[in-house]
Amino acid sequence: MHLADRRGTEIVHLTHHAPDARQPRLTKMTVAAASTTLQPLGANLHHVSARYDGPQHKAVRRAADRVHHLLDAFEAPHTITGDALCGIDPATGNTTVYTGLALGGGRPYTFATGSLPADGLRKAAELTVITGHCLWPEDAVRLVTTTGQRMSLLALRSCRLVDVPAIVSIEWDGPELSVYEIESCARLADSVAALAAPAGLRLPTTIAVQLPRLQYYGIVEPLLRSGKMCPELGVHLFDLIDDHRGRLIAHWERQLELRLPAGWRSRIEVSARPELDHFADRVYHGLTRGRVLGVHDLPAADRCDPVIAAVLRHMRPRTVAELGVATYVAQYLRAGVGGSLAVAVENDPERRILSTARRVATELGSHRGGPVRMVGLYPLGRLWATQAGTVTRPDLYQHTPGRWARDSASGELVDLLQLCGDLYPARRELYPALGMAAVLESA
Q1: Is residue 149, in this structure, part of any structural domain at all?
Q2: Is pLDDT above 60 for 30?
């Protein structure tokens, strides 16, 4: 399968049919660019062509304007393609429009939120681009119970403690990065480089790669505290997390190196140490001694930090899981105070973090004597997976495939990791050197 000439008009859609959901077939490649109506792609998700003039055309235009204005402020080379994806929230009926975009080497459908002041980046003291994603897809790490049940680690977030048997061991899919992780990194790194490269010409720029650590401990803290999981298994889980984070951080470094211009390391810093990571270290060492730490063990020095204090007052975390979410908000706030600018480039579900950060920023801004400046760019992928017969929204996180899939039309075996490279090719030549100005393309 050769997508190099066609990735601008096609969406690759994997559908699981066999009971083994880890080995789906590639069953559908939707060509929707010529359609003038809403074309369904999955549950509550539709494609809109560049020639669409239906009832949602004003929303499509407004969304495109937001994306263009934000990228224009960064002087990021881009082209608005005119088509879009419309996602409908079944609970509220609200529609979110993701604008078709040529950015970096890929063509992500992108949602933008927030606006820069009239001076754009000219008066910003520094820029922090916050990005990242989960370490594993949803079912890659499993807790084995005394009854032989295998429970997804991440699925525990929605389980009642009383319904979970004691845990006897941990299974995982191994050290290789999943299609979900490879695709997320390539797609997000494309957008990150498009913003950071031109910004690095004018002001100190940091790329903060957020990969969960404390958050995973928060999932199992109730099991550890209740005695349903022993501290030794908690240490083992931490070791798995740290080993996998190390591999993923190295992969992020390679992807950014392929996309950022020559000389970027003298201007742009990459940081992979999130807020309160030192507390995660403390939690780990507590487990090695048989102690299960909680929110009340957060050091006084952290509680007195203005940013952490504002987040704690607003969010009132009672568990480490809630504290983990609060650390994401704190990172946004710290990056946007004091004349600095924070821009989030993350997967779409993380938009709620920016919304929470804005609410806390109202309080924090009054304490620091100035506004907290934060904007967000959320690129969707062009490679999706769904479960046949379900109404869940297509994504790679919940329905992650194995590496290989078979095209049901041609019978050809497809390497999905190579497909990710075809969909999001590195385009370092967009920025020949960091000392050269970027050229903006507009539709």
Answers
A1: yes
A2: no
Look up residue 43 and give its two tokens.
């549950």
Q: Which strands make up the sheet holding 383-387, listed edge to edge?
A: 25-31, 10-16, 383-387
Q: Is residue 435 part of a domain?
A: no
Selection from 284, 339, 286, 295 nearest residue 317 by Cα: 295
- Which run of H or E residues covers position 272? none
Structural domains counted in the chain? 1
pLDDT tens digits along 228-282? 999 999 999 999 999 999 999 999 999 999 999 888 888 899 999 899 999 999 9
Instruction: Please check whether residue 124 is in contact with residue 340, taking contact to mean a CB–CB distance below 8 angstroms.
Output: yes
Token pair in block for residue 215: 């958050």
Give the phi and the psi of residue 88 in degrees, each rounded to 5: -110, 125
* Of residues 377, 373, 307, the one with CA closest to residue 127: 373
Cα(148)–Cα(226) distance, integer angstroms: 20
Alpha carbon distances (Å) from 48 to 85, 97, 250: 6, 10, 37
Range of the domain at 292: 10-430
Per-residue tokens: 114: 């927030």
Helix (H) or strand (E) holding 99: strand 95-103
Residue 1, domain member (yes or no): no
Determine the Cα–Cα distance for residues 152 and 157; give it in Å rounded to an integer: 10
Tokens representing 358 are 């804005």
Which amino acid would we find at residue 286?
G
Mean residue pLDDT of the chain comes to 84
In a 3-state reduction of DSSP, which class is residue 40?
strand
Assign 317 to helix, strand or coil.
coil
Look up residue 288 and give its two tokens: 């090695």
Is residue 91 assigned to a domain?
Answer: yes
Residue from 307, 344, 47 nearest 192 by CA:
344
* DSSP assignment letter at 136: S
